[in-house]
Known about the structure:
Helicase, Ruva Protein, domain 3; 4 domains; alpha/beta; 803 residues; Rossmann fold; 30 strands
Amino acid sequence: MPVTRLDPEALRTSCDPERLSFETTAQLEDLATLPSQDRAREASWFGVSVRRHGYNLFAMGSKGLGKDLLIEKAIEGRATLDPVPGDWCYLHNFDDPDRPRALSLPQGMGRQLREDMTQLVMELGAAIPGAFEGDEYQTRRKSIEDELSRRQEKTLSEINDEANEKGVFLMRTPVGFVFAPLKDGRPLPPAEFAALPEEEKDKTQEAIQDLERKLQEKLREFPRWEKEARSRIRELNREVTEFAVGQALQVLIDKYTEAGIEGVVAHLKTVREDIVRTMDEAQGKDGSPGALKRGALRMAEVLERYSVNLLVSNEGVERAPVVHEDQPTFQNLLGRVEHLQQMGTLVTDFSLIKAGALHRANGGYLVVDALKLLTSPLAWEGLKRALRQSEIRIDSVTQFLSIAATVSLEPEPIPLDVKVILLGDRILYHLLATHDPDFPELFKVAVDFDEELERTAENEGMLARFIAGLCRRESLRPLDRCAVARIIDEGARLVGDQKKVTAQLDRLSDLVREVDFWAGESGREVGTAIDVEKAIRTRNHRMDRVRRLVQEQIERGTLLIDTRGQAIGQVNGLSVLQLGDATFGRPSRITARVSMGTGKVVDIEREVELGGPIHSKGVLILSAFLASRYATGMPLSLAASLVFEQSYSGVDGDSASSAELYALLSALAEVPIDQSFAVTGSVNQNGEVQAIGGANEKIEGFFEVCAARGLTGQQGVLIPASNVQHLMLREDVVVAVREGKFHVYPIETIDQGIELLTGVVAGERDGAKVYPAESINGKVEARLRALARARRDFLGPGGGKDS
Length: 803
C-alpha cells in the first residue's frame, strides 16, 4: 500500500485562541487546585486521613509537577481538623541525671511552666541565702551551738572540781587533757613531785588514774553530743530551707494541681525534696551553709537543674503542625544533645537537648525530600527506627552505630505520632520498594502524579487560570489569550503529544516569567504571542551550543551525512541527544555490508561495547525477521555488519532498528537508497514499524541539515505511523511542508518504508509462495539463496557442517 505524506495540519495541533473565553489573564480567577491530578489528589487525601501505623506517604513524580502544592493543600485540609498537640519539655532527673525526663503538657503550658520555674529559681536564689543569713536563723543556730558548749564545759568543770578536791589539776594541752598534782593552788613541777613521800605520791597517782578513767567516760559522750547538735542544726537548716522555698513552691503546686497536670505537680514535689536534700548535703563539716558558696557546688549550679528545657511549644497554634525539613540530617530529624566546653572538657545537661523535625511535627505532618534524606548519612535508618518504634529517641551518631562514645545523656524517648510525606522521583520509590523490606511497611500510600494532562478544553482553561494566578502572585504582566494559547502549545510540545500537555507546571511558570521580561523589554503592558515566541527562541538559543557544533560539523563535511543522491546499504538514521534541559536531534549515517557467512548479523556497536542492551535487542529482532521471512527453507548463509558511522559514544535504544534493516535489505538486494530521506522507528519480528520517542526533535534535526544545504522538495523523514499523534513540530518545519519543500511520511511496515526509500516495489509472495523477481523482497531472497549455494559449494560434498 503506497505511503501518503502527512498534511501540514497533521504535524502540529494548535490551541485556537478563540476557544479561550477571556481577553487577558487579568480577567481570570486563580486556580484553586492542580489540573487533572485526580489520582494523586485522592491518594494524598486518603494518606493524610487514615490514622494507622505505617500509612505514611511517598509522593512520586518528576520535579515541577506541583507535588508540594497538592500535598500542602491535602495537609492543610486535614490539619485544621486534627487536634493541636501539646507541648513537650525535658526536666532534670533527680534519680538519674544522665537520663532526663520527658514531660508532656497541654498546649501553651510549656512556656508557662518554664517561666514559672525561671521565676522560682530567681526567688530561691535570693530567698535561701537570705534565710540562712537572717537573725532568727543565726540566733537559733547559736543557741544550739552554745548549748553544746555549755554541756561540754559543765562536764569538764565537774571533773575539774573533783580533781581539785583530790589535789589534782586538769590542764588543757595541744594534744588533749592532762592531770597534774596540785599543791598550794599551783601545779607541782616533776622534780617537786618526785621529792614527795612515796605514800603521798601513790595516793596522788591513784587519784589521777581514777580521774582519767572518769574523764575518758565523759569525753566519749562528746561525739554523741556533737552529732546530736549537728543533727539539730541540719533539722534547723531543713526547716529554714522548707520555709524559704515552701511558700513559692506551694503556690506552684496548687496552681498545677488545679490545672490537673499531675506530672508537673509530682516534679515540683521532687524539686522541694531535692532542694532540702541538696542544701543538707552542701553543708560543711561544721554544718555551715557557707560551704555552699565555698565548695564545688555553687548556688547557681544547684538551681539550674530546676529550670525547664522547653523542647516544643505549640502555643498559639490553631492546627496540627506541618513541618518542611529542608536539610533532613540525622540530628535535624531526631534532635541532638549539645555540649559546652569548660576547662578543656565537654560537658552537657538536660538544658542542652535540642528538638528535631520529628519533635516539631509530632502530632502533625512532616514533609521531606526523599533524595536529600537518602543521601544524608544514617538519616533514613534513624527515621525508620522512629516510625517503627513510634517514639523519638535522641542518640548521638556514635550511639546509634553502637560504637565507643564519650559519656553523654540518654534522654527519655518521646512517643511519636506523625504522618511523614516523602517527595521523590519514581525511580527512588521503586528502588526502595524493591530493596528495602521496611519501606512497604512504613510507607503504604503511593501518591503517583501524572506527568501529562489530557489536552481538553477544561484542562486548557485550568492552565489559563494557573497562569493568571502566577501572574497575580508574582506581580507579572497579564497575558492575552493568544499568548496563553501559545504557551499551551509549548506545553504539548514538551511532552511530544498532540492530545496531551505537560503537567510540569514549573517549566510553564518559568516560560511565563520570561514572557513577562520580554514584554517589558518591548514596552508592552500585556504579554503577547510574540513575547512567547521570543522567550522560547532565546531559551533555545541559550542552550544550543552543542547542537550548533554538530550542525556545523555536518555542514562542513566533518560528519558525513548525505541529503541527496543514492547509495547501496546506506541510510540516514535519526537519534536524540540530551544534555541537561537541551534536547536535539542528530542524523547519523548507518551502513550495512553483507557477504557469505553463517547467518550472523554483527552489530559493531555491540561488539566494541558502545551499544546498549536495547539497541542490541533491536539488531537481534531484525536478524530474526530476516531468517523468518527469507530463509524458512534454507540456512541463512550471510555475514552482515551494521554500524553507526562516526559514532564515538554509546548508542542505545531500538529506534534505529528499522533504519538498520533498510540498510541491510538494500545491501542484500543491491538496490540504492535515496539519501534525501532519514528514517526512525523500531521494528518487530513481523516487520511492523513501531513507535519511538523524540519524534519531533529527530525530524527537526534532519530538517535543519537539509535547510542548511538547501531544500530540494524531495527531502523528508520516515516515522512510524503510530507517532503521528505525537507530532508538535516547529512552525518553520510546518511551513516547509506546506510549501512542498519537505515531507513527513507515516510508515506502518518495513515493506512500505523500503519501497519509499528505493523506489522499487517491495513485493508480495504469489500463489506459489514466490516473490516477484524484480521486487526488493525477491532480490533479497535471491541473494540469500545465492549465498546459501555458494556456502554449500565452498564447503563441498557432505560439507553441510562448518569445519
